[in-house]
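User: Hello, can you help with two protein structures?

Assistant: Certainly.
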Amino acid sequence: MTNEFKEFSTDALLRIGDEELLLPYKDGKQIGLYTFIQAGDTMAEIIVDGELLVVCPNHIMSLTPIQSITFVGGENLIVHQFNREFYCIKDHDKEVSCMGLLFFGNNFTPILKLSDEELEKFDQLHKVIKEEMEMRDNIQAEMLRMLLKRYIIKATRLVKEQQHLEQEYSPKLELLRQFNILVESHFKKEHQVVFYAEQLNKSPKTLSNTFRQYNTAPLKIIQNRLILEAKRLLSYTDLSQKEVAYELGFEDASHFSRFFKNKVEISPSSFKNSKKGKIGMS
């Protein structure tokens, strides 16, 4: 059963339900909403941006609107979905905002393990949200936002604990998060680290040295984002290779083709042909 809250004055949307909310993604497409998927006593299988991920029992997956998913299967799931208008227009601490650790602070899809105690707390919170969805008064929207923020805070604490992130404010981790946010906004036009370094008032060398502690590199983040978007466009749109190259800010299709083949090991055209009639991306 699905419960839905809509605020027509702001286009705010909140949905809670089970695996029925994921059925529209059986054929693979961009999810379009911030989404939490909690597996109960059985696992769920979901292809996220071409990678098959397993959500084991008593685990929660966090997804951002820009990710493309294919729902492979799963039963007795708990799903929460919301849009920017519902939560992100409010002022929140940077760690629990729509640009926080759960959504743009990592270079991978967070999957959080729940202990028995944490499972009980998340289940109880879900029940409270569900009950509030049945209310109809002028403070319902604010109450639902408060409950969702509580959910996000609890999930963010688990991210920090399970990924061994600093428990207190970390300038280095904040720099990584800000870099990811900038890349998300500018990657289609800006492909060089120097642009982002200037925006952050840092040198490219400082960025490289900082990100090395998180087993990544600034140029790698930019290039991975370009490849990810290229795969999405080649898989889920009718754009030609030349049009994809233009969309991603490459001066010519041949340059894009060389870049793509170097990273994926097949040409963009071969990749696109391999996806015709198939679900997901490789």
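That covers the first. Now for the second protein you mentioned:
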Amino acid sequence: MLRLFTATGNRVLADAEPLPADAVWIDLVNPTEAEEALVEASLGIDVPTADDMAEIETSSRLYIEAGVTVMTVTLATGIMAEHAETCAVSFVVGPRHLVTVRYQEVKSFERFAAQATRNPDLCSGPLGALMALIDTIVDRLADGIEHIGREVDTISRATFRRADPSAAGRQQRRSNLALQALLTRLGAAQDSLSKARESAVSLTRALSFLQFAAPKDAGLAAQIKTQIRDLASLTDQASFIGANLTFLLDATLGLISIEQTAVQKIFSVASLVFLPPTLVAGVYGMNFAHMPELGWTLGYPMALAIMLLVAILPYAFFRWRGWL
């Protein structure tokens, strides 16, 4: 799909329709070969292909060719929807046009398109449209990191705080499924955070490159510095959340270890409780001819009472010592 944005409005270009001369922002979403060829022929620029955008070396992502600045960045998507992914997006900045190329839907682009529809002045020039678009992307990225932070706070409360205040003073057990769910949520949060951090770093590199690539008379220096500072603060926040995630992961693994130890302790106590009665039963189960208790009327109840007593005494001792 090929969308056009001008200082007077926007529309989707139909097949075989020529490119308008007043187009400022040209948004290529999953472009076909015909659409790429139309833009290249009309503007005299090379549009990066999907293979070009997959390159990871800086020289293939940030360069100037024939007076056209090309920047390919990695953007995080789906953070708010709990299925984070990354996609490559290329910005091709010419003297009169801004061309964006992407092969995935990116919410920040849709948000900026809506803003440009309400306020066409945002697309009065390619560099102005680029900075307004990057500002929207950074705002959306900040929203995503804030969402991850709230999720981490929720996980922290689920990990350490008792759901039932009346349970104070008693150990509140967690099931294996609950602990597995915590680990799953931690993994999802860490995945989203790593993609958000990668996006912030990629945008910072692109803006640092744009500082030197943009014309000095364009008046973008202050805007670029502001965006770089914003991205630096987002990176710091992501690092802080990452440290919390690491702590929560260690704490959750510790809780799993405690639960496993508690289960082993139950079996150990059960073995200890039933061992003395087994000894008593074994003694009275021996077939000796001369055992005085065998002839007593109360011999059987006495044996049962002894077995019950020797079972209770170890349990009571462990409770008194605070081992249970």
